[in-house]
Amino acid sequence: MKKMRLLSLILVFTMAVNLFAGCTKADEDNSSQTTVDNGEATTETENGQETEDTSGKKYDGVTLKWAVTETGASTGENVELIEKIKEDLGINIEFTIVPTPKDGEIDRTLVSLMAGDELDIVYSATPSLKIYQSAGVLTPLDELAENMGYDMKEVFGENLPVFDGAVYGLPAYSDIWLTFYNKKVFDDAGVPYPEAEGWTWEKYIETAEKLTDIENGVWGSYMLDYNNYYYMYATQKGADAYKADGTSNFDDPLYSEALKFFADLGNEKEIQPTMGMLAAGEYPWNAFAASDNIGMFVCGGWVTSLLKNHEKYPREWKAGILPMPYPEGSEASTLVVNGNYAIPTTSANKEAAFEAVKYMAENQYELGYGRVPARVNLSDEEITRYIEEELGADFVDDGITVEDFRAGWFDAERIPYPEKIIGTADTSINQIWFEEAQEYGLGIKPLEETMQSIQERSNRAIEEAKQ
Amino acid sequence: MKRRQLMETLTGYMFIVPYILLFTIFTGIPFVIAMGLSFVNVKYITKLDNIQFVGLENFVRFFSDPDALAALERTAIYSLIYVPLIMIIGFVLAVILNKGVFFKKTLRSMVFLPYVSNMVAVAVVFRLLLGARGPVVGLLLKLGVENPPILLTDAKLVLPTVVAIAVWKSVGLNMIVYLAALQGVPKALNEAARIDGATRFQQIIHVTLPVVSPTTFFLSISSLITSLQNFTVIQSLTQGGPGQATTVMSINIVRTAFTRFDTSYASAQAMVMFAVVMLITLVQWRGQKKWVTY
Q1: Predicted ipTM?
Q2: Sign of torsion, CA A347 A352 A358 A361?
Q3: Cα–Cα distance list, A304 to A81, A83, A177, A307, B97 (Å)
């Protein structure tokens, strides 16, 4: 009996240890706010206070906190950047590690900021930045810029994230939409490579029809079923998702035209996979890079990172790039999503943070990671040097020229429209578009009923968001 | 109480302490928080100091929200197909595999294997099988079916298809539990029924089913609860689509909370779902007296 009792106690003890061991592991995994020094020998300064100017650097010795994920903190680019800031501005930047939210989890940085944690710098794509702004955790930058005599518009033009009439961040990178093409598919079909000048959707369709060979599994065109594909044609024709009174504008005929335009590419014109094939997930997001039978792919500039990764995406064909097509009769345009640096309201030293953010947005591209700067004030010489030394180096074998890069990424005349809808209830509206457009594309609902449903549901979402 | 009895009692409690602790931390406390949230106006993008008590507003909103009501309806349809199917198929398989059939152990393993398979992997396989270029469509085309349905993107067929896949994946558990219950059916009862002239089918209806009725009761409740925990199956197979064709309550709740950031409203929906499950379970509990034989 004593043995049984002893065994029982051992078992209970083991279970208890396991329980708390599990908790400890979870605690470690979720350590939410760990401050990591950047490796520099730092001078202890009280955060938020300017130190005496002894080096000609106004904020020399000031320490700022930059919210990044664990991966971000170990990324060479970010580490180099804070070292460069320390060297050039004298500002010491510390990483504040914020756990990456897993699928379905909320953004931990936003939670931190809403809880009042002191942070000086955050980085975010424009749509996510809008969420931060809606939550009231971002500092508008206009006054800071004015006090410093800094013309943000001159440096970043239309790339600035402007919400409710104020600027809330400085963009470092532009993910501009492009047309990527497979030169082998063109060669096999005997179709000459297209030119950037006058590259309209009409020409795109005409070219795709010549390339498509369904029997041999060759699609002339390929696009994904992300929600913004469904309304991009309207966006490029200048349609606004909201009316002046704040309600949705999807009863504008341009939007039904846009939805029909996209669905027809697969369902009617048969130049790309049908909406059914896209909905069934038969063609994944990386299908263009991973296969050799897709002629053209219209998507964000991030696709270049797949094309230059020959290890993961080995290919025997050469790639080409063109600007994004635009509707005939409209001005040349493209879609864009920027990555921005912003200053939270919890920052204790906003002036120093602005100085650092300004520096990061202007200069980070020079670190040599092949990113496309969001600056619009680069000289021709600067752009050419950057393309030759950074962007083009990975695509020499593909025969992509400096002019190809210029036309796609650095055309100041091309109108950049936001990639996704940004405004009241934007996340709900993007979801509504996805659901409804899919129903139309699969023949579940007729076009008129679909557009009416999008309009009504969006207005309801806007009303709910205002409450 | 004797010292020995006291020690045994304490040991018993110590065994259940880990479970109670885990349940409290990961289920009890979140439940209480969710209940609290459903009566306030917390949105993901609401400043914490703006939180206000709104009473039953979120619940009123639920009953006037066509999307949420449609999701509730789809959930009901899902459960109404899932529960009877998994119960009947589980029982039939158990009866068959309880008797002398060839490759009994292999067949049992084959039925149980999907239960322990990863749902995401299962989803990938089914998407390939049922896709426009998959073997199912190919077979139907060869059989002369014009425009064969693509089951996972057909708005009318997608929900039953998803339920069928969920049943295929989980029926192994019901089969195993029924198999265990069948071991407990006294042979003498079946023997007596057989001598009285009962057919095999009559033996199952009049002898086996009443004897395993406590198992049926347990499985009916657990299957109902499983049918409502359908997030993973649907998310990995259809993500709630096409359109909203498979947007059931669990999907709608997650979207409301993490896509639309409407935390309080999502909590209210979760509370409604909880109330529905509780109600059905209570009805089953009360009803068991009439058909469960102990």
Answers
A1: 0.76
A2: negative
A3: 23, 28, 11, 5, 56
Q: Is the pLDDT of residue A14 over 60?
A: no
A209 CB near a chain B CB, below 8 Å?
no
Q: How far is B272 from chain A (nearest CA, A)?
A: 20
| Per-residue pLDDT at A16 | 52
Q: CB-based contact (8 Å) between A45 and chain B?
A: no
- Please tell me whether residue A299 adopts helix, strand or coil conformation: strand
Among B127, B130, B260, which would you mutate to test the A interface (most chain A Cβ atoms within 10 Å of its Cβ)?
B260
How do residues B32-76 score in pLDDT, each as one tens digit? 999 999 999 887 666 667 788 999 999 999 999 999 999 999 999
Interface size between A and B, measured as CB pairs under 8 A: 97
Contacts of B47 in chain A (CB under 8 A): 114, 135-136
Distance CA B275, CA B31 (A): 12
A9 reaches B (C-beta below 8 A): yes
**DSSP conformational letter for A216:** G
Q: What is the mean pLDDT of residues A297-302?
A: 92
State the nearest Cα–Cα gap between B143 and chain A, in angstroms.
21
Question: Which residue among A16, A135, A435 places its CB closest to the CB of B241?
Answer: A435
Contacts 24+ apart (CB under 8 A), A30-34: A30/A99, A31/A97, A31/A99, A32/A98, A32/A99, A32/A108, A32/A112, A33/A96, A33/A97, A33/A98, A33/A112, A33/A117, A34/A96, A34/A97
Contact B18 A428 (CB under 8 A): no
Q: Does A21 touch chain B (CB under 8 A)?
A: no
| Euclidean distance between CA atoms A77 and A363, whole angstroms | 12
DSSP labels, A157-192:
GGGS-EETTEE--EEEEEEEEEEEEEHHHHHHHT-P
- Per-residue CA distances from B46 to A116, A296, A348, A413, B268 (Å): 13, 43, 22, 40, 17
Closest CA to A59 of A311, A351, A408: A351
Higher pLDDT pick, A237 / A466: A237
The CA distance from A288 to the nearest CA of chain B, in Å, is 18
Strand pairing report for A333-342 and A415-418 = parallel
Q: φ and ψ at B31, to 5 degrees?
A: -65, -45
pTM over 0.80: no
Helix or strand holding residue A124 (H, E): strand A122-125
For residue B147, list chain A residues with Cβ-Cβ distance below 8 A.
none
pLDDT digits (tens, 9 = 90+) for B152-166: 888 889 999 999 999
Tens of pLDDT along A240-293? 999 999 999 999 999 999 999 999 999 999 999 999 888 887 888 899 999 999
User: Which residues of chain B does A422 touch, with a Cβ-Cβ cutoff of 8 Å?
Assistant: none
Q: What is the pLDDT of residue A21?
A: 44
Q: Which residues of B209-232 are buried (b: 16+ CB within 10 A; e: fewer)?
A: bebbbebbbebbbebbebbbebbe
Backbone dihedral angles phi then psi of residue A67, each to the nearest 5 degrees: -80, 115
More confident residue, A448 or A1: A448
Percent share of chain A, pLDDT over 70: 87
pLDDT tens-digit map of A404-424: 999 998 888 899 899 999 888
For the segment A321-342, what is each residue's pLDDT rounded down to a tens digit? Answer: 999 999 999 999 999 999 999 9
Predicted local confidence at residue A279, as pLDDT: 86
Residue A255 tokens, joined: 């939007």
> CA nearest B21 in A: which residue?
A19
Burial class, B162, CB count within 10 angstroms (exposed 0-12 / middle 13-18 / buried 19+):
buried
pLDDT tens digits for range A335-379: 999 999 999 999 999 999 999 999 999 999 888 777 889 998 999
B260 interface with A at CB cutoff 8 Å: yes
Measure CB to CB from residue A439 to each of B14, B21, B243 and give the nearest one: B243
